[in-house]
Design brief:
The complex is a heterotrimer of chains A (about 425), B (about 325) and C (about 425). Chain A is α+β, with helices and mostly antiparallel strands. In chain A, about 55% of the residues lie in helices and about 15% in strands. The radius of gyration of chain A is 31 Å and the shape is elongated. Chain B is mostly helical and about 325 residues long. Chain B has a single domain, classed as ABC transporter involved in vitamin B12 uptake, BtuC, CATH 1.10.3470. In chain B, strand 2 and strand 3 form a beta hairpin. In chain B, helix 3 packs antiparallel against helix 4, helix 12 crosses helix 14 and helix 13 runs antiparallel to helix 14. Chain B is globular and about 65 Å long. Chain C is of the alpha/beta class. Chain C has two domains: about 210 residues, 3-Layer(aba) Sandwich (Rossmann fold); about 150 residues, Response regulator (Rossmann fold), CATH 3.40.50.2300. Helix content of chain C is about 40%, strand content about 20%. In chain C, strand 6, helix 9 and strand 7 form a beta-alpha-beta unit. The chains are: A alpha+beta (about 425), B mainly alpha (about 325), C alpha/beta (about 425). Chains in contact: A-B, A-C, B-C. Chains A and C meet through helix 1, strand 9, strand 10, helix 3 and helix 11 of A and helix 8, helix 10, helix 11, helix 12 and helix 15 of C.
Chain lengths: ~425, ~325, ~425
């Protein structure tokens, strides 16, 4: 113990002198990575007394020792700058710098290529700023599309489940989380490559959705449980599942094994990652496939019939229970896929599903509750709006914008973009 | 295992600040959901408006305590009006989604970086409780009997809190016996029937929303004052859902339902939590860590909510016929 | 230890209480405690609820979960090691010190407040914590109003220097005035004239960002973007796009665990550690070997308050917790615990207010000593002591901040772990 503290004291004693050997002002002059030599630097004390001067050496370095801690004025003699090199900020040739006791202080003069008259110091500032702005707009639109697709996958399930059973499922966000974490278990614990783990996890999600309907929601409906009751039950399910994931996996951000921190690629003004593009491609393919299936297959037509009028559908020979189970399995599968894509492009966390739940609701409501295609359109609009709105509002308020739009839409057109009037009744 | 600690914590929680805050929040919800049938999922927003109305007035603008209380109450009324205008004509599930969204908007706005100077950002606000505790009639020290012990500050919060709960219960009792209250209940049962009697359903719903919201903002005051600080993330959607659990546990559409629900909810929650923590700390339970106790607790709340609604939606005191669970 | 009998009674009373409340609809609860008050108040005259029971109870309010969970293990180990050594040397005021561990969570949860309630209910005298400045701020009023010392080993926000804490708040971590100055200087030394700051929006992030900005622009650099972000944000693409638009040569990333989301986003948008110079701070200087593929963070530099902890101190910590991976803030936690014990001994009382009264005194001005046993012997001999700790000389200013400190500069290698480059010492004031 004595030794410990002695070591500590010794180290401290050793560490300090290395920096306590005098207060110094120093710096390195560089222009685009190249050292700038022969530039005169003058240092005066706060009250104007000269302290010392130095000339930058072959590496661009200069150093002026000062007598004590305090405030000093450091001036770069612009006349000694080589031709073609100027101060990037003309008014910053003299800097007032605070030097602290026992420490050196680095001083930096930003240099740029240009003419002494300053015309070339900040070349075409205006146009580069505006092009940077449009780059950002393009980037945000792209991010919006990417977010919108994820929301659309989730919103599709919410909308179909609502259409066929009338249930507003507050536990739908957790279907994303469960799918993503199912892939994580396959990926990290069982060591499967993500490309293998992801489809398996989608299957697990489908089974999970099917099981939920078969053994939980179906029996509840048969007990004639009220819709509001079921809505609150779904909140219970959401809380239970969310904290089950927290219990099992902890609260930290976890990545998959593969495709972490990929290098960006540049597509015109848009920077993205290969995994981001592939994720978007998969999402678009799945959404189109589901859309086509709903429109053209027997099953899809039956689903739309049930969601239109379950009683009528049943009387025309459609097995409503079977359709509802398939809808649940399909909704959970696409939600699980959305979760995996979110986990791949970003990171996994037990709250990941909850964080997009309200955006999914916004998309569904915007499109019109209960209409599958409305949900798609609404989700894409919400995703784009959320990201692009950050041009005008602070990023942390982007969700506020989407939620505010949701409320305003309900005020103006409560049935949503593609909804029908009587549904809101 | 320290059984004394476990029971002392559980009993204290059962009559402590959490129970008072959730009792008030649930009384507000009871007016919305229990009596009027409004599925308000944004009660956390009313608490946030109350808490931040108070804290912002005092901390940011340096104004007196009572003005802060006024701002909080007025804020709750305004929030109810803003919330009610677009939503009260909508069906139950739309109303649920919109109210939850509105409460999230409040939370996101007060935690935003841009308004940090006013609302304190993610850290929230502090140093606003001085005036409240200056009114404290109890001299410093520890008060209590047997296993229940509170310090003078908590006792002062509890005194004010239980008086507010009693007052709120009394008002709800009287109001629900009045013709006005009967209209609310009638709206819950059959909105169209009430409309056909020439009553302005929208206006009655709005009044109920304002009334319940103001009671919720009282809970917000106590939430902020008991902690002597307020953070935006305390007012997340989970607060609303816990309040629903409390309400359904005690029994909706009953005056004492939320109060008893809150007491039992917190007694059980802390009993289980502290019990498990102690069990883990003393190696009675070895397969989980202390950190996991919190998540088990939340899982039990979720499970409790599910089971309650399936097997006893009327809760302890409620009447099944009076619960608006089939409304559309 | 009371066992079965009280459970029955407890349940009976609970039932009775709830029945009583049912009858009257609630609200009569306060009558009973008030009537039993006079008997209690005589025992605790001036000092509020906490302390004065003869046993120094130290509550650790440190992160087991949440954004800063990675800082938890070394901090707990530091406290545990100190308590072990104190008790081996005979304890404080002749009695062993009691340690209670609780979780501080983060500002997204209400865990800290509940933990403080639990600690206060167990007559805690000194609370070691929290790690995050934001969390500390949420509980400081509660702790100090109860007359308990709050002693943080890791709070660096400059706000606490001037906070009205009734003289009960102390810390062994230096205010970010120094870390910000060192980091700013480091950025200039590396020759970056346009600098962006991406910081957590909380008292820690804002405080450090302001200090870095002051240091960079004071030394001739230019802050081209200073973007505070919401720590709970689902994605950071918009925040990073803002930084990219400003086209900086260097980026100071002042964050906690969100780093695992921000770094991939930076790489995606083409301003990753391979393109511009990125600097970490104490909140995110961690081992990322499991989070990122090899080479991701190579060359990233960072600052962390605290001198190098001596090897044998590390060995002792490992004996306490064999699973430790790094040692951030372990010395500070250890020193905070030892100092509290010494102050209690010097005051002759374990009450929070008494401990606070002596903390500044034992940290400076007197006969130097470097471990608990030696300091205790000096105190018993009636001498004034000056404890010099593992984290540094620990000389408290009147505000309860360390007035001198050491900042380490670190650099990441290809395997995403960090190693020290150098240490800088300096006075915090100025």
């Amino acid at each position: 113990m004595v030794f410990t503290a002695f070591m500590g004291a010794l180290l401290f004693a050793l560490a300090s002198p290395a920096f306590a050997d005098g207060e110094t002002l120093r710096g390195t002059l560089q222009n685009q990575g190249q050292p700038v030599t022969g530039v005169k630097i003058t240092v005066t004390s706060g009250d104007g007394q000269p302290v010392g001067e130095a000339t930058s050496d072959a590496e661009g370095k200069w150093e002026v020792p000062v007598p004590a801690a305090g405030s000093y004025q450091v001036t770069l003699d612009q006349a000694t700058l080589p031709t073609g090199t100027v101060l990037r900020l003309k008014d910053r040739a003299t800097l007032t710098v605070q030097v602290f006791e026992g420490n050196y202080r680095n001083v930096l003069f930003a240099l740029a290529s240009g003419n002494a008259d300053g015309s070339g110091a900040q070349p075409d500032d205006g146009s580069s700023a505006s092009s940077a702005f449009w780059t950002r707009v393009a980037q945000l639109a792209f991010e919006g599309l990417s977010l919108g697709l994820v929301i659309a996958l989730g919103a599709l399930g919410i909308s179909l489940i609502f259409g066929t059973t009338g249930l507003t499922n507050f536990a739908h966000g957790e279907l994303l989380t469960v799918g993503a974490f199912a892939a994580l278990v396959l990926n990290t614990t069982l060591g499967l490559h993500l490309l293998v783990a992801a489809p398996l996890a989608v299957l697990i999600s489908a089974a999970f959705g099917y099981g939920q309907e078969r053994f939980f929601w179906g029996p509840l409906r048969n007990r004639k449980t009220g819709l509001v009751s079921m809505m609150i039950i779904s909140i219970g399910v959401a809380i239970f599942l969310r904290y089950l994931v927290l219990f099992l996996f902890g609260g930290e951000n976890v990545p998959y094994e593969q495709y972490v921190a990929q290098d960006g690629i540049q597509l015109g003004p848009i920077s993205t990652t290969p995994k981001g593009l592939i994720a978007m491609g998969v999402e678009i393919v799945v959404l189109i496939a589901v859309g086509l299936a709903l429109t053209y297959t027997r099953l899809g037509k039956a689903t739309r019939a049930v969601s239109d009028n379950p009683a009528l559908a049943a009387s025309s020979g459609i097995n409503v229970d079977r359709i509802v189970r398939i809808v649940w399995a399909m909704g959970a599968a696409v939600a699980g896929l959305a979760g995996i894509m979110l986990g791949t492009t970003q990171i996994l966390n037990f709250q990941m599903g909850q964080q997009v739940l309200l955006l999914m609701f916004a998309g569904v409501t915007l499109g019109g509750l209960g209409t599958a295609f409305g949900a798609l359109v609404g989700a894409l609009v919400v995703g784009m709006f959320v990201q692009i709105s950050t041009i005008w509002i602070p990023p942390e308020l982007k969700t506020v914008g989407a939620l505010a739009v949701l409320i305003i839409v309900l005020l103006v057109r409560p049935q949503g973009i593609l909804g029908r009037r009587e549904r809101i009744g | 295992m320290d059984w004394e600690l476990i029971f002392s914590r559980a009993l204290s929680a059962g009559i402590g600040t959490e129970a008072v805050i959730y009792a008030l929040a649930a009384i507000g919800l009871n007016i919305h959901f229990g009596y009027t049938g409004l599925l308000n999922f944004g009660q956390a927003g009313f608490l946030a408006v109350g808490a931040y109305g108070l804290a912002t007035t005092i901390t940011t603008f340096g104004l007196p305590f009572w003005l802060g209380v006024t701002v909080g109450l007025v804020g709750a009324v305004l929030f109810a009006l803003l919330l009610g205008i677009p939503t009260l004509r909508l069906r139950a599930d739309y109303l649920a989604i919109v109210t939850i969204a509105a409460a999230e908007i409040v939370r996101l706005v007060v935690r935003s970086v841009a308004l940090r100077g006013t609302f304190g950002g993610t850290d929230g606000l502090d140093s606003f409780s001085g005036d409240f505790y200056a009114l404290n009639p109890y001299s410093p020290g520890s008060y209590g009997f047997w296993l229940i012990k509170f310090d003078h500050r908590t006792l002062w919060v509890l005194t004010v809190g239980w008086i507010l709960v009693a007052a709120a219960c009394a008002v709800v009792y009287l109001v629900m016996k009045s013709p006005w209250g009967r209209v609310l209940k009638a709206i819950r049962e059959d909105e169209d029937a009430v409309r056909s009697l020439g009553k302005n359903v929208f206006s009655y719903k709005m009044q109920a929303l304002v009334f319940g919201g103001v009671v919720g903002s009282l809970a917000g005051f106590l939430f902020a004052l008991s902690r002597a600080a307020t953070q935006p993330d305390l007012f997340s959607t989970e607060l609303t859902f816990f309040a629903y659990t409390v309400l359904i546990l005690g029994g909706a559409a009953r005056v004492a339902g939320p109060v008893v629900g809150a007491m039992i909810f917190w007694l059980l929650l802390i009993l289980v939590k502290t019990g498990m923590e102690e069990a883990v700390n003393h190696q009675v339970i070895t397969f989980i860590t202390v950190n996991q106790v919190g998540s088990i607790n939340y899982m039990l709340v979720g499970l409790g909510l599910i089971l309650l609604l399936i097997y006893r939606p009327q809760g302890i005191f409620g009447d099944k016929r009076e619960i608006a669970l089939d409304a559309r | 230890m009371i066992r079965i009998a009280p459970i029955g009674r407890a349940l009976a009373v609970a039932t009775a209480a709830s029945l009583a409340l049912t009858a009257c609809g609630g609200g009569e609860e306060t009558a009973a405690p008030a009537s039993s008050a006079p008997a209690e108040t005589t025992t605790s005259a001036a000092a509020p609820a906490a302390g004065g029971d003869g046993v120094l109870t130290i509550g650790a309010l440190l992160p087991q979960t949440g954004d800063l969970a990675f800082l938890g293990p070394p901090e707990f180990a530091g406290v545990k090691l100190a308590v072990k050594e104190i008790n081996e040397a005979g304890g404080v005021l002749g009695k062993p010190v009691v340690e209670i561990d609780t979780d501080s969570g983060d500002t997204k949860t209400d865990i800290a407040s509940q933990s403080v309630d639990k600690l206060l209910a167990q007559n805690t005298d000194v609370i070691i914590g929290a790690a995050s400045s934001g969390v500390s701020k949420t509980v400081i009023d509660k702790i100090t109003n109860a007359g308990v010392v709050q002693f943080s080993p890791a709070n660096t926000s400059p706000e606490f220097t001037t906070y009205p804490d009734k003289g009960l708040y102390f810390r062994t971590a230096p205010s970010d005035v120094l870390q910000g100055r060192v980091l700013g200087d480091l950025i200039l030394q590396d020759g970056s004239d346009t600098v962006a700051i991406l910081n957590r929006q909380d008292s820690y992030g804002n405080g450090l960002a302001d200090e870095v900005e002051k240091s960079v622009s004071g030394g001739g650099g230019q802050i081209v973007a200073k973007t505070p972000y919401d720590p709970a944000a689902a994605d950071f693409s918009a925040d990073v796009a803002k930084i990219k638009e400003a086209n900086p040569k260097a980026l100071a990333l002042i964050s906690f665990n969100e780093t695992t989301k921000i770094i991939p986003e930076l790489k995606k948008q083409g301003i990753g550690p391979d393109k511009i110079k990125i600097y970490f701070v104490d909140g995110n200087l961690a081992d990322y070997s499991k989070d990122f593929p090899k080479g991701t963070l190579e060359g990233v530099k960072g600052t962390l308050p605290g001198a190098k902890s001596p090897d044998d101190f590390r060995q002792k910590l490992l004996a306490v917790d064999p699973s430790l991976k790094d040692y951030s803030y372990a010395p500070e936690s250890y020193d905070a615990t030892i100092l509290s014990a010494l102050a209690a001994e010097a005051a002759g009382s374990d009450a929070g207010t008494a401990v606070a009264g002596k903390l500044i005194d034992v940290s400076k001005g007197g006969e130097k000593c470097t471990d608990f046993a030696a300091c205790l012997a000096l105190l018993k001999a009636g001498k004034d002591i000056d404890y010099d700790g593992v984290s540094g000389p620990v000389e408290f200013s009147d505000a309860g901040d360390p007035s001198e400190a050491t900042i380490g500069i670190y650099q990441y290698a290809a395997d995403n772990t960090y190693a020290n480059v150098t240490y800088l010492s300096g006075k915090v004031a100025g």
